[in-house]
Amino acid sequence: MSNNLRHVALQGLSHYKAVLQLQETFVSQFLASKRGAPLQVKPHVITSQFKPVYTTGRRDAGKLSQAEKDYLTAETPHGRAEFHAALRGGQTTYHGPGQLTAYPIIDLKHHGLSARCYVHLLEEVLITTCARYDLKAFRTKDTGVWVSEDRKVGSIGVHMRRHVTSHGIALNITDAVKPWFERIVACGLADKKATSLQGEGCNPAQLDNVEDIFVEELAKALPDSESAFHTNDMFSIPTPDEFAGPLSHIAIIADTDMDGLSPDDQNAMADCLNEILKDLVVKESEKSATGPLRPGQIFINFKRNSERLASIGSLVHDEGFIDA
């Protein structure tokens, strides 16, 4: 397994479920390699900003009433949020514009880390990321990263399957997150509130590369990890403003290996990618001549005329959880 940490940077605002599908492809590759599949598995970290969404972790699973869910997804002056249950540890939280989410997919066993050491490492990476912006952050008895005893700037909620991690961290960048957090008791902490880098005095003009800085700090902190590759061209979801036509979101995945995958696994890859792209809006003249995604290959003609390869390991569900 390569020690290079691959940075999968998603552009624009992403759908929560689509990113979970992408995350599952990388997790499944790790699990398949553990079961003997001849795959060249690389550690990845997915960074994104989501469209507004509230998610529940394991501790709140099944506890929210339908009325509470309706409240969270109701129209507000700031728009409407979705609601999804998640496999991560922790309780109810918010993700959306103005917040970095980073989902490392790594094998803790390979890096010699226990689950608790991994959570401690993520906290340390959040702290060093904040320090790059001259913001002093620290730990408390509550999981996450804080700038005072009652102001939280970064959250952690992870999931593990046979030592393979998923989900990860959320770091509030701008004050755009505040009205959404005010609608919930985030992470079950009634006497605490969310803050952001901007809210703590960081210059918004300097906050456009937070994801790169976080990944650099993660690569430095992760045992046996080499440099982080920032591969925006590997998987990108361009924003509609980048195109003259009515393009919405488009996903491109590259630089993986289909060798050793069964036809079922290849079909699973195509299913995942088609799910990611199901809301794509494209002019008829810009659609690929190849039609729907085929196992192992995507070709979508949209002015940049990009062609990429993609693959996935076996989709398995031998679950194990870490409640952080």
Automatic annotation (TrEMBL):
<dbReference type="InterPro" id="IPR000544">
    <property type="entry name" value="Octanoyltransferase"/>
</dbReference>
<dbReference type="InterPro" id="IPR004143">
    <property type="entry name" value="BPL_LPL_catalytic"/>
</dbReference>
<dbReference type="GO" id="GO:0009249">
    <property type="term" value="P:protein lipoylation"/>
</dbReference>
<comment type="pathway">
    <text>Protein modification; protein lipoylation via endogenous pathway; protein N(6)-(lipoyl)lysine from octanoyl-[acyl-carrier-protein]: step 1/2.</text>
</comment>
<dbReference type="InterPro" id="IPR020605">
    <property type="entry name" value="Octanoyltransferase_CS"/>
</dbReference>
<comment type="similarity">
    <text>Belongs to the LipB family.</text>
</comment>
<dbReference type="InterPro" id="IPR045864">
    <property type="entry name" value="aa-tRNA-synth_II/BPL/LPL"/>
</dbReference>
<keyword id="KW-0012">Acyltransferase</keyword>
<feature type="domain" description="BPL/LPL catalytic">
    <location>
        <begin position="39"/>
        <end position="226"/>
    </location>
</feature>
<protein>
    <recommendedName>
        <fullName>lipoyl(octanoyl) transferase</fullName>
        <ecNumber>2.3.1.181</ecNumber>
    </recommendedName>
</protein>
<keyword id="KW-0808">Transferase</keyword>
<dbReference type="Pfam" id="PF21948">
    <property type="entry name" value="LplA-B_cat"/>
</dbReference>
<dbReference type="GO" id="GO:0033819">
    <property type="term" value="F:lipoyl(octanoyl) transferase activity"/>
</dbReference>
